[in-house]
Write a structure and sequence with these properties.
The chain is an alpha+beta fold and 278 residues long. 40% of the residues lie in helices and 12% in strands. A five-stranded mixed β-sheet has the order 3-4-2-1-5. The chain binds a DNA duplex (21 and 21 nucleotides) through helix 3 and helix 6. It holds the Pfam family Myb_DNA-binding.
DNA sequence: AAATTGAACAACCGCAAGACT
DNA sequence: CAGTCTTGCGGTTGTTCAATT
């Protein structure tokens, strides 16, 4: 005997929403804003539970909702993010403007999971591509004469922060100015002696690679963001303890695009469940 | 034409975390 | 600080509709 469903009270409607109900809910939220869902139905004059109202608004009525026609880009992104994050639908949806967690979840369950099962869990060409890219990048790291991090175990507290921007513009073949942004990772290694609670450095490395699986190194398929074409991994300079790792991300962008890049780095931190600190 | 099947997606449910009292 | 409330999340179920038999 579980607890009572929230919509079990007499007189509360359930099931599909009518146009009239949608209209009432939309009008009420437009006038009074979101929130206080529990009391919203009575205030708005709806015979629904607050939970149902919230869901209806978030998944269907919100003005910024993009419905149907998941594009190929979105499709690819969902696959990559799911590989990285698992069933964290809200996080995945957060990277797809206008899409809801419910929609992504449904899309995954009805389209993508079947497709991936059909193709051997996606671990074929896709995985090979990642491996190849990983090797390529490590080669870049080596030629740049930076120290390559070893896979090592950290304890459960891993921090990520954006370092002060490094003003080291350089030029590529097209004489285009680049921008560097650093991410400093800090694993408090073996602080409590529990080796089983740690993050594997390999795992965040894999995660970074997953973010950059396209041939053109496009970051997250986001048209508005600059494509990131290179990732270097190095020990942070000046740190005595070797649990600091610095990930350098170079972007083909000028100064004005730095906020985009910082946004992506913060998103990455969130995805990987790292803490951020200034 | 009717019955069946399956895809798509809307909606519900229980749980957990954080906010509030 | 404990109890209660609110909100958000992810799993699951229910409903609709088109395709197939």
């Amino acid at each position: 005997m579980g607890r009572k469903p929230c919509c079990s009270r007499d007189g509360l409607r359930r099931g599909a929403w009518t146009q009239e109900e949608d209209k009432i809910l939309s009008a009420y939220i437009k006038a009074h804003g979101e929130g206080r869902w529990r009391s919203l139905p009575s205030r708005a004059g709806l015979k629904r539970c607050g939970k149902s109202c919230r869901l209806r608004w978030l998944n269907y009525l919100r003005p910024d909702i993009k419905r149907g026609n998941i594009s190929q880009e979105e499709d690819d992104l969902i696959i990559r993010l799911h590989k990285l994050l698992g069933n964290k639908w809200s996080l995945i949806a957060g990277r797809l403007p206008g899409r809801t967690d419910n929609e992504i979840k449904n899309y995954w369950n009805t389209h993508l999971s079947k497709t991936l099962i059909k193709h051997g869990n996606g671990h074929d060409e896709h995985q090979n591509k990642i491996e190849t890219k990983k090797e390529k990048t490590l080669a870049i790291v080596d030629t740049n004469n930076v120290v390559r991090t070893k896979a090592r175990r950290c304890t459960s507290n891993v921090f990520i922060t954006t370092t002060p921007q490094q003003q080291q513009p350089h030029f590529d073949d097209h004489n285009e100015e680049h921008m560097n942004t650093g991410v400093l990772l800090h694993g408090n290694e073996a602080a409590n002696g529990d080796e089983n609670t740690g993050h594997e450095i390999e795992s965040w490395w894999d995660a970074l690679m997953d973010f950059n699986m396209n041939d053109d190194w496009t970051w997250m398929n986001e048209a508005s963001s600059p494509p990131i074409h290179n990732i270097n991994v190095a020990e942070a300079e000046g740190d005595d303890d070797d649990d600091h790792h610095q990930v350098m991300i170079e972007s083909e962008a000028d100064e004005t695009r730095k906020p985009d890049l910082d946004l992506d780095l913060n998103a990455l931190a969130a995805f990987l469940d790292w803490e951020t600190y200034a």
